[in-house]
Every structure is written in structure tokens, then in C-alpha cells.
Write a structure and sequence with these properties.
CATH architecture of the largest domain: 3-Layer(aba) Sandwich
Helix content: 40-55%
CATH topology of the largest domain: Rossmann fold
CATH superfamily of the largest domain: NAD(P)-binding Rossmann-like Domain
Order of helices and strands: EHEHEEEEHEHEEHEHHHHHHH
Largest sheet: 5 strands, parallel
Number of helices: 12
Number of strands: 10
Shape: globular
Length: about 300
């Protein structure tokens, strides 16, 4: 299978690396020193599930150089989705599909507007991974799985084909019957966890063990469940309780990618996570004061913090 990975960070680097190791023709689109390292030394994945080295990683900084592919794994940060989406047209020229693996619930709509409904699947990534150093992806814990699905029934075989390739490459990939609901299920947990870890500058262990912070995260999740319901997605009465149980199962040192960005002084995805909840809640006439407050507290850092010379 010919695959393009747009954004070779934690998600794209890990899953793209596993697919490349399995023999698929994978091209990574990356930037800066990470791109230089991929070209010169290949890609290395450090993981408790087993280390991976892709010695001859195909990498470029130009999407236009990739050409038509079967599947594009779209793994850029949320602020790059709208500007990058039109650039993907040459990649789907021969009938290929794009699968976005962003943290929010709006990327697929942007892509479908730019590329057409018959060129976009839905995707959800479950992994804690980051670029440890140029060319090296560090995977925390053992959670590493994808969920994919089709918004258009005729594209379901494409989702199933990609999932089969992932499973053959050694990681789990589920095909969701309702990919829209799957996106919201992740968004409930991810937006709340990213917001709370970033707000407190603390890992998961602190969030779940402090009763006040835990209650804040639970309240944030309940607001997002209410928002999902207002948008026609019903997640079930026990959904938040299940997410709290999931929180308790995670490595205590696990940190959200947004906390990693915050601590590094980088730009934040907060406008599409807690901020996105607050914005969509206002549009839907739903109350979301906890998410709105988290976003307000993070706003001074959204553009990143200039590093000292």
C-alpha cells in the first residue's frame, strides 16, 4: 500500500513507522531538524511494545513531491488543518483517501469541503507519543491503536483495507460502524484531559489522585457529553464513569501532547479543544463554564511563549 504521512510527530511517526517496517511504501512529510534526521539516519521508535528502526525513511518537506497515494494519514496540528487541506488534492487524484488523526471533531468536515465527500474517512488515534529528539519517536505506555470508519457507506471497504494493513503491521485498528460517535468519544476525554493537565502543569497521576482536579475533569467531560447530545450524538448515561475508569488505568506519568507543547513554549491546540467546546456550546445553546474557564486560563499561552536568546 502506498501511504503518505503528513506530519511525522508522535502519531504519524509511530504508526507510519510501523507500516513502513511492515513493507508498505510510506513517505513522511516533515520539517526542520526532524526532517533532516529522517533523511540522514532514518526513523527510530522507542516503545515498551518494542523498538522500531526504519533505516531508509522516505521523507520530504513538500506535499507536492509525494504524488498520488492510496492512503494519506493526515497528522498535522489542528491549526494547520485548514491551510493544508487543499494541498492534498494531488495525493487523492487516483482515488486515494485521506484519514485525519487530529484531536478534535472538526477536521473531517474541513477536509470534505476541500477534497470531496468521497475522499475522506474518519480516524481516531489512541497513543501517547512525542518527538523525543529529531528522528526519534518516544512512545509512553502500551496504548497504541487506531479507529477508522467511513462517513459514506461506499468507502467502508477502503477503511477495512487500511485496518487490515495496520493489523498486519502489528498494531490494532478497529473499523467503527459509527465513526462520528467514535470521534466524539475521544473528544470528551481528550479535550478534558488536555485542558486539565495543561492547566495544572501536571501528569495524569496528579489529575486523577487530587479530588478537586479529578472533579474538574469529570465536570469538563460532562459538559462535552451534553454538547455531543445537542449535536445529535448520544454517548450513553455511563460514558463519563467509563472514562474515569480509563483515566485510572493510564500510566501516572502520562502527559497530554498539549502539556508537552505548553512546557516547551510551543503553540497550543487549546482553541480547538477546551476552546472548541466553549465555542460549539455557545452555538448550540449549551452551558460549558468549566471548559470555557480552562480555555480562558490557557489563552495567554495559545500562541506559544518566545524562547530567551
Amino acid at each position: 500500500m502506498k501511504i503518505a504521512v503528513i506530519g511525522a510527530g508522535g502519531v504519524g511517526g509511530y504508526f507510519g513507522g510501523k507500516l513502513a517496517q511492515a513493507g508498505h511504501d510510506v513517505t513522511f512529510v516533515a520539517r526542520g531538524r526532524h526532517l533532516d534526521a529522517l533523511r540522514s539516519a532514518g526513523l527510530r521508535i522507542e516503545s515498551g511494545l518494542g523498538n522500531v528502526t526504519v533505516e531508509r525513511a522516505h521523507a520530504t518537506n513538500a506535499i507536492a513531491d509525494v504524488g498520488p497515494v492510496d492512503v494519506t494519514m493526515f497528522c498535522v496540528k489542528l491549526w494547520d488543518v485548514e491551510s493544508t487541506a487543499p494541498q492534498l488534492k494531488p495525493l487523492v487524484a487516483n482515488g486515494g483517501v485521506v484519514i485525519p488523526f487530529q484531536n478534535g471533531v472538526e477536521s473531517h468536515d474541513i477536509l470534505r469541503d476541500a477534497l470531496g465527500d468521497d475522499r475522506v474517512l474518519g480516524g481516531v488515534a489512541y497513543i501517547a507519543a512525542t518527538i523525543r529528539e529529531p528522528g526519534v519517536i518516544a512512545h509512553t505506555g502500551t496504548m497504541a491503536r487506531l479507529t477508522v470508519g467511513a462517513f459514506e457507506p461506499k468507502l467502508q471497504p477502503r477503511a477495512e483495507g487500511f485496518a487490515a494493513a495496520c493489523k498486519a503491521a502489528g498494531f490494532d485498528c478497529e473499523v467503527a460502524a459509527d465513526i462520528g460517535a467514535a470521534l466524539w468519544k475521544k473528544y470528551v476525554f481528550l479535550a478534558a484531559m488536555a485542558g486539565c493537565t495543561s492547566l495544572t502543569r501536571s501528569p495524569v497521576g496528579v489529575i486523577r489522585s487530587d479530588p478537586d482536579i479529578r472533579a474538574t475533569m469529570e465536570a469538563a467531560m460532562r459538559e462535552i457529553v451534553d454538547l455531543a447530545r445537542a449535536r445529535g450524538v448520544e454517548l450513553g448515561g455511563d460514558f463519563v464513569a467509563k472514562q474515569l475508569h480509563f483515566l485510572d488505568s493510564l500510566p501516572e506519568a502520562m502527559r497530554s501532547s498539549m502539556l508537552n507543547d505548553l512546557m516547551a513554549g510551543n503553540r497550543l491546540e487549546a482553541p480547538w479543544l477546551s476552546g472548541g467546546v466553549a465555542r460549539m456550546a455557545r452555538e448550540a445553546g449549551v452551558a460549558a463554564p468549566v471548559n470555557a474557564t480552562i480555555y480562558a486560563a490557557l489563552k495567554p499561552f495559545v500562541a506559544g511563549v518566545p524562547k530567551p536568546n
